């Protein structure tokens, strides 16, 4: 009778383990999906910011170039056009960030770094472990209790 009971309990235990594994997998998939959605939203906000900044900077660049050109012609000093050169580099950079292929180039470079220079991506002191986090938490809790006394 004990054998029959233990066999049923073992089957029940295995079913529960499979359920827990399936549940953990589902939870991980949901977390990954949520993190990806958050990443996409953050990237969309950065892109929207770049486009909005470009509108304002483009207006500034146009007015500054017009004013500097008029001043250079009236005063007959071509040196007044000198600020247009660095401002145009900034404008082109912002246009590339907002509407160009900068993101694709950055992604390709990041993938290349991850493949060929992965040692540069190591976290100082390695990845945190449960033990290291608990050790730090206990130390802080111990310091808190000492300062309260």
TrEMBL record:
GO cellular component: plasma membrane
Keywords: Membrane, Receptor, Transmembrane, Transmembrane helix
Transmembrane segments: 53-73, 79-99
Keyword Cell division (UniProt): no
Keyword rRNA processing: no
BP term (GO), one: positive regulation of plasminogen activation
PANTHER family, A to Z: PLASMINOGEN RECEPTOR (KT)
Name of the protein described by the UniProt record: Plasminogen receptor (KT)
Organism: Danio rerio (Zebrafish)
